[in-house]
Amino acid sequence: MRIANITLPLGILLVSAVAETAIGYGHSVDARGWWPLGLSVALLLYAGYSVVFGLIAGDRILPMTYIVGVNGVLAAARVLASYLFFTVPMDWGVVNAGMTQLSFFQTLVRSAWTFYLLPIPFLVAHFVALRGGWPNVNQQPRNSPR
């Protein structure tokens, strides 16, 4: 496993985690008080994602554009999801009274699982792309230095 296949995604997602925390800090009183915990959970999730990303890549030398592209889109999606979580209006009184239901979009944005499940499609796409031979990657010999 190549270190660059782990550290580059982790670096990109670190910036995303800080941006998500800043968005929460700016929109929520609760996030202002709990931001260290929120940031820690996000960093743990992204560290796990980066390790799995690196394990899937194995010893392949991935193009930097591929790594930045896949993880940049994930980072942008996470920042957008965080922004929408705090800005999509909800009338909880009407919803809790049973007078209306959340739309699919509102349910998706406000779901507690969105935060944890969003990286999974990116890992699946990464796995499928590498198993299908795209992008053009070089398999590094086992006895060469990393």
What does this structure look like?
With 146 residues, the chain is mostly helical. It has one domain (4-88, 119-139). Helix content is 73%, strand content 3%. The chain is built from 7 helices and 2 strands. It has helices spanning 4-27, 29-57, 64-87, 92-96, 104-110, 114-117, 119-131, and strands at residues 60-61, 138-139. It has a two-stranded antiparallel ribbon. The radius of gyration is 18 Å and the shape is elongated. It starts with a helix and ends in a 7-residue tail after the last strand. The relative contact order is 0.16.
Strand content: under 5%
- What global shape is seen? elongated
Question: Which class best fits the helix and strand makeup?
Answer: mainly alpha
* Average pLDDT figure: 90
Q: Tell me the distance between the termini.
A: 9 Å
Poorly predicted runs are none
Radius of gyration: 18 Å
Question: How do the strands line up in the largest sheet?
Answer: 1-2
Q: What is the H-and-E element order?
A: HHEHHHHHE
* Count of discrete alpha- or pi-helical segments spanning 4 or more residues: 7
Q: How helix-rich are the residues, as a percent range?
A: over 70%
Quick one: biggest sheet? 2 strands, antiparallel
Tell me how many strands there are.
2
The total number of structural domains is 1
